[in-house]
Each structure stands twice: as structure tokens, then as C-alpha cells.
Amino acid sequence: MIADDDEKWLTAATAAVKQNAFYMQRAIDSNNLKDALKFSAQMLSELRTSKLAPHKYYELYIRAFNELGKLEIFFREETGRGCSIAELYELVQHAGNILPRLYLLCTIGSVYIKSKDVTATDILKDLVEMCRAVQHPLRGLFLRSYLTQVTRDKLPSIGSELEGDVDAHMNALEFVLQNFTEMNKLWVRMQHQGPSREKEKREKERNELRDLVGKNLHVLSQLDGVDLGIYRDTVLPRILEQVVNCKDELAQCYLMDCIIQVFPDDFHLQTLDVLLGACPQLQSSVDIKTVLSGLMERLSNYAASSVEALPNFLQVEAFSKFNYAIGKVVEAQVDLSASASVTLYLFLLKFTLHVYADRLDYVDQVLGSCVTQLSATGKLCDDKAAKQIITFLRAPLEKYNSVVTILKLTNYPRVMEYLDHETNKAMAIIIVQSILENSTHIATANEVDALFELTKSLIKDFDGIIDDEVDEEDFQEEQNSVARLVHMLYNDDPEEMYKIIFTVRKHILTGGPKRLPLTIPPLVFSALKLIRRVPSGDENPFGDDASATPKKILQLLNETVEVLSDVSASDLALRLYLQCAQAANDCGLEAVAYEFFTKAYLLYEEEISDSKAQVTALHLIIGTLQRMRVFNVENRDTLTYKAQGYSTKLLKKPDQCRAVYECAHLFWADECENMKDGERVVLCLKRAQKIADAAQKMTTASRGTSSTGSVALYVELLNKYLYFLEKGNPQVTGDTIQSLAELIRSETKKVESGAGPFINSTLRYMEFQRQQDGGMSEKYQKIKMEWFE
Amino acid sequence: MNYLLGAFKPACNISITFSDGKNRKQVPMKKENGQTATVPLFHSQETISGKVCIEPYQGKKVEHNGVKVELLGQIEMYFDRGNFYDFTSLVRELDVPGEIYERKTYPFEFPTVEMPYETYNGVNVRLRYVLKVTIARGYAGSILEYQELVVRNYAPPPEINNSIKMEVGIEDCLHIEFEYNKSKYHLKDVILGKIYFLLVRIKMKNMDLEIRRRESTGAGANTHVETETLAKFELMDGTPVRGESIPVRLFLAPYDLTPTHRNINNKFSVKYYLNLVLVDEEDRRYFKQQEITLYRLKEDTSS
Q1: Model confidence over B115-146: pLDDT tens digits?
Q2: Given phi > 0 = left and psi -120 to 50 = alpha, else beta, which region is A540?
Q3: Which family does it belong to (chain B) (predicted)?
Q4: Residue B2: which H helix or E strand, with range?
């Protein structure tokens, strides 16, 4: 309804403006000064309305403004025709209504200044003084805005076409400042106009008008000759005085921002204490963080864009000033929300990182201040603040791209303490990701300790926090990162590396059953890697108990892996034991290796019950054992015997068969003469063949037909025989192979076998070897096979 | 008076010309019928001289008992219509009784005439100077001809001219201090000043400065007082805040003003006042009236 009325009034007013403008134009065309003045005044009278909302009023103003442009030209022509401009200046003041009178006065005033008949100073002073007569906020604002508009290109300044000595120039400055002050007063006063229930709407309207006020600051910044000295001594103090004194939230917020955006960076830098000094004096409701962050952002960009500016930053001690100012602001604004204060510190931090990248102590100081602030509020619960903190903590990380640097910041972990668990974890992930992405090299145990302290939310569970809702996949992802992280920790010095491993272990072991299976393996492998570099042997070269020896490391690993078996990750434990055993083997530590095997066997016996897992585990055991060289005959026999025992106890016949023929390898090590027991090899193979026969029978019995599975077993066995034949096992004879081949042939005749390709390629291989020159073909010659013909 | 002459078919045409008529400044003057005529301008102590030309119509003769020219200064009160008070009356006899057959010209002169009052055209009163030519005849009445003239007298700038300064207010509501730079202004002057707001508790719409003329005629019980507002000049738009000072700059030139007349021949007086009016949002008016003295300053020859 109101909007409709608004529209109606605007239409009416616009029509009146148009009409009078038409008559004015006609008077201008016929050089009728009197009528031109009369109709222009009538036109401007439309601006006296109180009925329009600001944006409608603005529309009307713009229309009138355009028409006044014509009038200005007319005035200029008129003076060219010999009409005294002073007379005109008086003539327009005969208008009875104040608003049209002042619009006309401003118009002619601008012509007057341009004519240089009179010093610009006098006119400007007169205009700005006369404009006081309009005290109605909206109309006053627009009038003064018009004044700004028509004079802005005519202000005397050094080097402008208008002659201006220093005085004139200062006076021009004074003019703009005064106009600004008055406009701001009007603007601020606007909120008190009308009923208080419409306050919100009024504030909105007021906000629409803010650029009218801000334009003055823009003009100031464009004014030639405003150098640092003038800015520092006159412009800034005057503006700030007005800003502070107006005690209005909206104005303060906007104008501070305006100052920051409009004036050059180095001005800000040089007047930082003045500008910052004003901040605590602002109304408590002012969103000071936006203001300060704007300033810091600007200065950061400035520092980033120009290298020459950097010394200035140091010179004016920008950092300490900001830090101090923010402290003051936080102190002054009691009800500042946590997220707001964090944002403040965030921008200070960004600023510091940009400008003082090499001053870690500054960065730490910012973090410290933030901690102090947070300690007042306690843990952060609200999402926004948490997000801000993450950005806050992320900033140095992104800047330095190195967690090592971060670890030097003593306050960094203290800030993290104020995060809730979720956020803390998110932050830890970010830290870890950063390390991974940048391949950050973390080389000392102390750093590692600090790092794990920092990321502990990833490493261990916390009391009272239930991670039920955590997505399994996410969890895996997290822990994978941690695992990858372990590999990043590396030092060339074995002693230090040992310490690192020790430290990592300390932290990782706190991880609980869910994490351990994922985090222990990398630790183990990292340690195993170390073992290879440590001087082997039991003797202690340093005479130092703490120094790393393979034995010690292995002992450590032994304990570590044991933890895994406690958390029902026996599969994994078994594999790790085997790995360790192998390492012990490489170091020649028989007892240790035996211990590891024992553990592995125990695990196999007690923990691994799934038959598939058993098969896999057994193959691993056999494979590892085959490689062990450190054992004496007795130990080796014990272990081998055991392994054989396990093999025959597997559930499925084919599995048994395969395990058993694998066991054959345990008696034959190529590079080791004393480990070539051809007889026992053949014994194993024979036993395997029996099992294969049994398997064959079983399948025939159960299905009534021979299955392909056992044929494959035979072929596999054949391959084993061939292997040992090639290796020169004297116990492997041509006859044995021949009879096996016969068996395969008869079996394949009985039934169409799926193992055809396997058989064929085996046969092809044999044929090939036969035709080779040298020792190999000789061995193969022993096998007589009609099959080939 | 031409219609009178026409009605009675006058026997002759009388014209009055001034000896320096071509150079003398002419000023516009509003006549009774509302039309504006241009009339020669004189000042006190000037010599008024010229010629009276009597031209009988073709074939007619004018028989008369004598021809004279009078310079009259008259005050005419409208509520006492028809009664002229002549405060100045000078006579020059131009001809002895006789007959005029043909065009005859009589020079006349009133040397350094004292004309103390200015021509004035008010609401209730009129002060005018007129040259009156009378051809006295025994029958059919005398033949009369009038020539108006305007008299303006310059005053020197006053030696003492204090500013007007005053503090006024309504308790706990509005308190202002105003200042006009002078108390005496010449007619082309400009009033400068400022209004200083000490306390503002009412919402104001605007503030005007009015120039009011107070014309007082008659004396005693018959005194008539007429007040006109000659100028209404807006000074301020909207409500100021405490401490605000609003400039005043009012050019007097565009308004039809006369000097202040304190006492004209005990018949009337004309006084001027500045009236400062504040209008609040309920259209209530708060005002304060101050007398100012207007005087006519000798103008530059150029303007």
C-alpha cells in the first residue's frame, strides 16, 4: 500500500519536474534568464517532498540533477554574454524556498569557481556554509551530495588548472572535510526521524544512502596534493573524529571501511596507530572484525605486491601495533563472539604471514594471543568459530608448507586444545595431509613427538567420545594417512631414527584395537628398514645402552607386534613376525629369529582357525622358512618338521597336497650346499602325490567322475619334479617323471580336462628344454616320453 | 482626468514638460487604476522647472480668469476619501485673465523646493507630489491638468548601526539565539545573520524570515494599523540539532520596500519588522519580531 503511494507520488513529482524542466529549457533557448530561474526553482521545489522513500527520492534527484546540468551550461553561456556572474550569484538567492535556492546556488557557484573571477575558496566556504540551512536529513544529504558532485572537478589543488596556492588547496580540503562532516551528521540523524517501530526499515534505507557520504572520502583521496603529511595531520584525524563522535554503528562500520578502502596503502601504514587507535573507541556493536580484517587484508596485499614496501612495515612496527590494537578491541568489546575474535586473529595471522613470513615469533605471538582469548571462552562449540579456527590454524601451514615450522610454534598445540574432538581431528587430518602432499621431511624425534602430540586425535581414542557414527571408510582413510605419515619420518642417522621409531611406537600404541592393525605395519616396516642400515652384530660400538642395535630394534618389534595379536589381528601379526624373522635372519640373530618363528607358529596354532587363512599363512611360513639361513640344523629341523605337520593337517586335500609339495623346498636351498637334501625332497613330493591320489579318489567317489582339480595337482607336481630336476637333485629320476606323465596322460584321456593348456605348456617346455644344448637337455634326455611323438 | 475633459469637450489641450525631462530619471509608479506609468523622479531641494503649453482646439478660444501652476504635496487617507492634506503648496501665476486663441507656452520654475517626504503608496494612505495647472474660468468650471512626480530622498548611512542580537525561547522546548548584522538597512542591502539553536525539543518543519510593514494612519482613536508581509523567505528546512547554526542571507533588492517613515506630518508612519518564524510539524508557529530601519542610500549612478 505504502509502496503504491510512493510510486504515485514519485510519478506525480517526476511529471512536475519534467514539465518545469521543459519550460526551463524553453526559457534557456530564448535566453530568458528570469524565466529560466523561475522554472528551475519550481522544478527543484519538487525535491522538497517528504513523502518519498530514499531510493524513490534518489530517482527524482537524478532527474533534477540532469536538468541542472543544462542550467549550468546556460549560466556559463550567460556569463559569456556579459552577464555578471556575481549578479547571477545574488539573483539565484532571491528564491523564496531554501532548497531550490541552494541547489541553484551550488550550480552557479560551480560556474563561479570555474570562471576564476573570484577565489574558489570563498565560494566553497560560502556554499558549504549556506547548505547548513537544510537540516532535513534526506534532503540535506542529497543537496550536499549535489554540492560534492558539482564541485569535485573544480576543487583547487596543486597542479590543477585552477590556480591554487597552498592555502587555497588547504581550504579545498577543509571544504570537503566540512561537507563530509555535515553529511555524516545528517546521515546519522536520519535514524531518529519518525516512529521508532519503523526503525529497522529506516536503517535499511539509511544504508542505501551511505555512498552519498562515502563519496566525500573518495573525493578527498582523489584530491591532488593530499600527501602523507596532510593526510596524517589533517585528513585522518578529522575524519576519525567525526567517525568516533557520531556514535553510530552503521556509520562507523561503513566509514571505517571506506577509509581503509579509499586511501592508499602506505598512508595506512604510516598512520596505523592513529587508525587503530580509533577502533576501540567505536560503538561496541560495530563489527570491528570486518573493519580490521579489511585493513589487514589490504596491507597484506600491499606487502605482497610491492617488495619495497616491506621495510616500511618493519619500520612502523605494524605487527605489534595490530596485535596491541586487537587486544584492545577484544578487551573493549566484551560481548565479542568467539568466532569474531578468532576471525580477528585469523586476519592478523594472515597479515603476519604475508608481511613477516620470516618472523615465527610473531606468528607464535598471534597464536598465543588467540589462546589467551580462547581460554576465556573455553572449548569452542559453535560451528562457525570452529571453522574459523581451522582456517586460522591452516594459514601458517599453507604459508610455510612445512609442518616442521609449525612444530616450532609452541602455541599451536595450545590453540588446538580448544577445539572439540571433531574439529581437532579435522585439523589433524589437515596437518597430516600437508605433510604428505609436501613430502615434508620430519627428522628428529622431538619433532615427531610434537607432531604426534598435535595429531593425537587421530592417533588415539579419547575418553567419553564415541566414534560410533564415524564412517568406516573415513576412518580407514584417516588411518591410512597416519600410516603414510609414519613413512615420512626419516633420518639418515640411525641413532636418531631409532629414537623416532621409539617415539612413534609410543604414540601409536595408544591407538586402540581399531587403529593398531593399520598403524603398526608401517612402523614395523620402517623399523625393519632401519635395521638394514644399523651396523649388525651384537657388539655395541658406542658403548651406549640407548644406541640402536638390530637386536634391540627387533626386541622392540617383538613387543610391538605382540600387541597386534592381543587385538585379534593375528593374521597380520603372523606376517609381521615372519618379516621380523627374516630381518633377524639377515642380521644373523638366530635366537631372535627362532623366537619370531615360535611366535608365528603359536599364532598359527592358536589363533588362525579359518582354513583359507591357514593355507595362506602356511604358505607364508614355508616361504619364509625356506629363506632362513641362520638356523642350525636342529632348529631348522624342528621348524621344518612343524611346518610339514601343519601341511598335512590342512582341511582340504588339494591344499594339503600343495602345502606338502611346497615343503619340499625347505630341504633344498640353491646357494647353500649343506641344505640340499634330495632324498627328503623326493619324499615330500611322493607324499604330495599320494595326497593327490587320495584327492582324486575322493572326488571320483563323491561325484562319480574324475575332476579336473586333481589333474591340475598332478601337473603341478610334475612341474615341481622338473624344477628339482633342473636344480640337479640326484634323487629325481626320469622314471619318476615318466610315470607321473603317464598318469597325467591316462587321467586326461578319461575325462576332458580343463587343465589342458597347463599340461600342454608344461609339455612344450619339456620339449624345448630337451632340444637345448648343454646340461639342461642332458637332464631332460633322461625322461623318455612317447607322448611327444 | 482625461475622461472628464473628454466628457465636456474641453476647449484646449494642456501639456506640462520639464526642462530637463529628457535626462531626468523616470521611475515606474502604480496608478489608481492599477496600471503602471513612468514618472519623473525628483529629490528634495531640486529645482522643478518646465513649460506649460496650452493649445486651444481648432477654431476655439479659451476665455479665462487667469492661469496658474501649483506644486502640491498631498497626503490622502483612503478611509477619509477625498480629503487631501496639502503639506506643500507652491503657486506660480502664469497669466492674467484674458483669452487664448492660439498655442501659448508659459515657462515656470520652483527653485530648490523643499520636499521633505517621499512619495508613498500604502494600504491606507498615499503621499504624492503633483503639478497642477489651472485655467480658471467663471463658467463651466476651470480646466485642470495634473502631472505626477515621484520624490525620493536619500539618507546618509547611519553613524550608529548596531547588530540585532537576541536570545529567545520557550522553556524546555526551544531555545534560540539570533543575530542580524545591522539594525538599519538600505533598500538594496542584504541582511546577514545566523540563528543559533541552543535547545531543540520540537520537530520543526521549516523556519522563515518575513519582512513585515506596519503602516499606521491617523491619530488617537482614529488610528488605523495595517500590517503586510512583503517577503517570506525560507531559512531552514527540517529540524536542526542542538548547537546547529543556520545562516541568514536575505537580499532586500527584489522586494518593494520603502524607507522607514517614523512620522509623516503627524498623519501616518511606516515601520518595518523582521519576523523570524519557526513552524513545527503540527503547523504551530513560533515567532519573534524585530524592528529594522530602512533607509534609502544614494545609489551609484551606474545602477
Answers
A1: 999 999 998 899 999 999 999 887 778 888 99
A2: beta
A3: Belongs to the VPS26 family.
A4: helix B2-7
Q: Give the minimum alpha-carbon distance from A93 to chain B in angstroms, rounded to a whole number.
A: 8
Nearest residue in chain B measured CA to CA from A49: B237
Selected residue of A45, A84, A98 to mutate for chain B interface (largest B Cβ count, 10 A): A98
- Interchain contact B277–A (C-beta under 8 A): no
In 3D space, the residue among A558, A564, A646, A568 whose CA is nearest the CA of residue A607 turns out to be A568
A756-771 and A708-727 helices, crossing angle to 10°: 20
Closest partner residue to B244 (CB to CB) among A132, A136, A139 is A132
CA dist., res. B54 & res. B60, Å (int) = 12
Q: Give yes or no for a contact between A41 and A95, defined as CB atoms under 8 angstroms apart.
A: yes
End-to-end CA, chain B: 34
- The C-alpha cell 611346497 sits at A662
- Statement: the pTM of the whole predicted model exceeds 0.90: no
Contacts A90 to B, Cβ<8 Å: 190, 251, 253
Burial class from Cβ neighbours inside 10 Å (0-12, 13-18, 19+) for residue A379 reads middle
Mean pLDDT split into 10-residue runs, chain A, 789 residues: 76 93 93 92 92 90 93 89 86 92 93 81 90 93 93 70 65 89 91 80 86 89 84 90 89 90 88 85 81 84 79 78 80 72 81 80 82 72 75 80 78 78 80 80 79 77 57 78 80 79 79 77 80 62 57 78 74 82 79 82 81 84 81 80 81 82 80 74 81 78 59 80 79 77 74 68 79 71 59
What chain B residue is nearest to A128 in terms of C-alpha separation? B247
Min Cα–Cα distance to chain A from B156, Å: 24
Please name the residues in contact with A768: beta carbons below 8 A apart, sequence gap of 6 or more: none
Residues 5-44 of B with CB under 8 A from A: none
Give me the residue from A99, A129, A189 closest to B237, CB to CB: A99
* C-alpha–C-alpha distance, residues A268 and A278, integer Å: 13
Helix A734-750 and helix A708-727: axis angle, to 10°? 160
Residue with cell 589433524: A428
Q: What is the CA radius of gyration of chain A?
A: 46
Q: What number of other Cβ atoms are within 10 A of residue A96's Cβ?
A: 14
Q: How many beta-carbon pairs below 8 A join chains A and B?
A: 55
Q: What ipTM was assigned to the predicted interfaces of this complex?
A: 0.88
User: Are B234 and A98 within 8 A, CB to CB?
Assistant: yes
Contact (CB, 8 A) for A541 and A596: no
Cβ of residue B238 closer than 8 Å to a chain A Cβ:
yes
Rounded Cα distance, A502 and A489, in Å = 12
Give residue A162's identity as a one-letter amino acid code.
L
Which three three-digit cell numbers place residue A591?
635366537
Q: What is the DSSP string of A568-636?
A: T-HHHHHHHHHHHHHHHHHHT-HHHHHHHHHHHHHHHHHT---HHHHHHHHHHHHHHHHH--S--HHHH
Q: Which of A506, A503, A509 is nearest to A491 (CA)?
A: A503
Residue A315, SS3 per DSSP: helix
* Contact call for A98 and B236, based on CB within 8 A: yes
